[in-house]
From TrEMBL:
Organism: Streptomyces drozdowiczii
InterPro entries in the record: Acyl_CoA_acyltransferase, GNAT_dom
Pfam families in UniProt: Acetyltransf_1
Protein name as catalogued: GNAT family N-acetyltransferase
Entry superkingdom: Bacteria
Residues in N-acetyltransferase domain copies: 1-147
Gene3D superfamilies xrefs: 3.40.630.30
């Protein structure tokens, strides 16, 4: 007999993450080998662009793990779109990931109305897509070699 709950619980989520990570490590020799490698530690990577008044003009939030850069958020203020700022933010994140964190590849997920064309221009290739996620929208997964 089990009691099910649907509340958001950050502590339980952290416990769930640890338990799943430990289980994955025990079941996969590849994941087990990664556990002890220094460049396999997950670490946040942020790049910020501030305007002359110190306001946020754009930013990128990502994380690095196991020789991969995983882009999570990239935003440029509408006043600065088309100026190359997004490409500069992305290039800086890729540089830090490659030079300082020994990353070999990068990945990103984006929706069809967001930026798949932008990422393709930066050298990313579509590796997969999910139609109707959310309904009426296509999600793309793109990757790039950083070497």
């Amino acid at each position: 007999m089990f009691h099910l709950e649907t509340e958001v619980d950050k502590e339980r989520r952290a416990q769930l993450h640890r338990l799943l990570r430990d289980d994955n490590t025990a079941r996969s020799p590849h994941m087990s080998a990664l556990r002890g490698m220094p460049d396999a530690q997950e670490a946040p990577l942020h790049v910020w662009a501030l305007d002359a008044e110190g306001r946020l003009a754009g930013g990128l939030a990502a994380r690095t793990w196991a020789s991969w850069l995983h882009l999570e958020l990239l935003w440029v203020d509408t006043a600065h779109r088309g100026s190359g700022l997004g490409a500069r933010l992305l290039a800086e994140a890729e540089r830090v990931a490659r030079e300082d964190r020994a990353c070999l590849r990068s990945r990103v997920e984006t929706w069809d109305f967001q930026a798949p064309g932008f990422y393709r221009k930066q050298g990313y290739e579509v590796r997969g897509q999910v139609e109707d996620f959310p309904p009426g929208v296509t999600e793309f997964t793109l990757t790039k070699e950083l070497r």
